[in-house]
Amino acid sequence: MNAQKRREIFLRFQTANPHPTTELAYTTPFELLIAVILSAQATDVGVNKATRLLFPHANSPQAIYALGEEGLIPFVRTINLYRTKAKNIIATCRILLDKHNGKVPRTREELVELPGVGRKTANVVLNTAFGEGTIAVDTHIFRVSNRTGVAPGGNPLEVEQQLLKHVPEEYRHDAHHWLLLHGRYICVARKPMCWNCLINDLCEYPDKTPAPTKGI
Q1: Which residues of the chain carry a pLDDT beneath 50?
Q2: pLDDT tens-digit profile of 79-108?
Q3: Rounded CA gap, 36 and 24, in Å?
Q4: Residues belonging to the active site
Q5: CB proximity list for 34: less than 8 A, separation 6 or greater
Q6: Residues 202, 8: Cα–Cα separation, whole Å
Q7: Structure pTM?
Q8: What does the angle CA 115 – CA 119 – CA 124 come to, to the nearest 5 degrees?
Q9: DSSP H helical segments within the chain, as ranges?
Q10: Which of 5, 45, 93, 153 is placed for a possible disulfide with 159 were both Cys, Cβ 3.0 to 4.6 Å?
């Protein structure tokens, strides 16, 4: 895909959704960090249901650490892998208190040292909480980048590097959210809704799905 096509794609995304953001509910960088840790192999809707109960009760490293694993589990037990995530969250809170004065660090290197935080989670926090032009590649972004031809790659890191290389700088901060939302609602895994896609004519996917026919 050439640079002109890529620019037009992100221009259309921007025109349709000028201020995209995460669908996770949060009010502070710490709340976002906890929500993203919980979101692995879980839906944003499910995470929001859990944090809607948790955050009014405990929304700081001190308060959540004071709960301990057994105190945290009742708030997150509806989420997949809740025991492992509860363990990681308590350990993360301890590190934040011991090493970062209770603050969420602002470098990827420090973030990925936290239990339950990988490169994708760190990139989400850096982008959404701190306004950096990072691009977190989840399953939706990986699929859309490869399917459309915007940034093909064999693994998430390759796709991230291609996006950082090819997305025009003025669109880089919001690219993560545009691609994620497009993959979540339009360019879905099994049957992409190509007939309802605002970049259909620019996309390089060879097997575009026709609109479903209505019964008589």
Answers
A1: 216
A2: 999 999 999 999 999 999 999 999 999 999
A3: 8
A4: 120, 138
A5: 51, 54, 64, 89
A6: 8
A7: 0.89
A8: 100
A9: 3-16, 29-39, 44-57, 61-76, 82-99, 108-111, 119-124, 139-148, 156-166, 172-185
A10: 153
